Amino acid sequence: MQHIERDVVIIGAGPSGMSAARELRKAGLSVAVVEARDRVGGRTWSNTIDGAWLEIGGQWVSPDQTALIGLLDELGLETYSRYRDGDSVYVAPDGTRTRYTGEMFPVSATTEAAMNQLIETLDSLAGAMDPEKPWAHPQARELDIISFHHWLRTQSSDEEACNNIGLFIAGGMLTKPAHAFSALQAVFMASSAGSFTNLVDDNFILDKRVVGGMQGVSVKMAEELGEDVILNSPARTIRWEETSEGYRVSVISDKATVTAKRVVMAVPPNLYNRVSFEPALPRRQHQMHQHQSLGFVIKVHAVYDTPFWREDGLSGTGFSASSLVQEVYDNTNHDDPCGTLVGFISDEKADYAFTLSPEQRKKEITSALADFLGPKAAEPVVYYESDWGTEEWTRGAYAASYDLGGLHRYGADQLTPVGPIHWSCSDLAAEGYQHVDGAVRMGQFTAAKLIAELA
């Protein structure tokens, strides 16, 4: 057991924790990062499976993610554009498959008008929100006590339109059924991305990828920090007191006890209860954490000898609110002759998928891919399912959100420090919420607060 003394100890070596550590070190403060996993990167992870290199976790960069883009530049990491030439595919509720171009799904004129009206309404609501303070929205309580599912149906009687718009938030982002989170949470998701229009534009939100993988962001920062990153060392206890000289805190982990002036919890809220706090956290924190939870999604990787869909003039992009696979994209790696598709199965559909045997699940999922891109999609040479719900130190995806009524009730307190304890993760971000960009922003924001207090 190592006994270490530092200015700041950080729990979690994902992009937020590593960004905080990097900024603190640059300001001349000493840091130690303790990480439960055997790797850095948190919910970003690149690995080789059956000979295929895959982005198992978060991976995309959009043009508005300036904190992440700036960090990529500083670290010398390059990006490349997602392949998107050719037609997209929409599978309607009745199973009809239609090729199309542009952002709008090929739906009836009535459904298109309903979708446009819903987008316009959500853009207006998001425009009235400060993503730093979603609980201060003029309609905060009203929007927070109704589910997004039911709110959509107060706005439109077109079921296909409601399900399609719901897909962008429920399946594509929060990975929870639309009846499980509030309309305010949905508006906040849109506000954090700049608008709901940005969320429905896959060419914007899924613009670029990092050469070598998004995990490389954390790997590069870990290389700078060297032995100050301690892996395979879950934090078990945070013990602190206030003395005449200020706070003194000890973090007891499996491999090290770190004594410091401040501690940063850079893990998602659903993992806070894996740590014992001495003294106990305040009542408000305990209650708040019980109203935050991660969603559930299967990220499916299907690798083929070639990106065969391109020969047919297809981009590899497909959408369907009714399919088992709700979204599919060309996820071919930089300079890779093989073709890779990535598909997403969210919330209740993911629940269903895991009632199946592995063989039957693969059969139904690849059949759904084939519905989008043709029979060759049913026969990948490598197939892998990213299931963050069973990953011990994550337990869900992509990020925590509040249950009904939770955001306006507790959101203003989610960043309130408890003595020397600060909170920092993408789940608590304003801009870039639940994206790597939000994790970086939170790490830099938290570091700036601590530098002001300690440097």
TrEMBL record:
<dbReference type="InterPro" id="IPR050703">
    <property type="entry name" value="Flavin_MAO"/>
</dbReference>
<comment type="similarity">
    <text>Belongs to the flavin monoamine oxidase family.</text>
</comment>
<dbReference type="InterPro" id="IPR001613">
    <property type="entry name" value="Flavin_amine_oxidase"/>
</dbReference>
<dbReference type="InterPro" id="IPR002937">
    <property type="entry name" value="Amino_oxidase"/>
</dbReference>
<feature type="domain" description="Amine oxidase">
    <location>
        <begin position="16"/>
        <end position="450"/>
    </location>
</feature>
<keyword id="KW-0560">Oxidoreductase</keyword>
<protein>
    <submittedName>
        <fullName>Flavin monoamine oxidase family protein</fullName>
    </submittedName>
</protein>
<dbReference type="InterPro" id="IPR036188">
    <property type="entry name" value="FAD/NAD-bd_sf"/>
</dbReference>
<dbReference type="Pfam" id="PF01593">
    <property type="entry name" value="Amino_oxidase"/>
</dbReference>
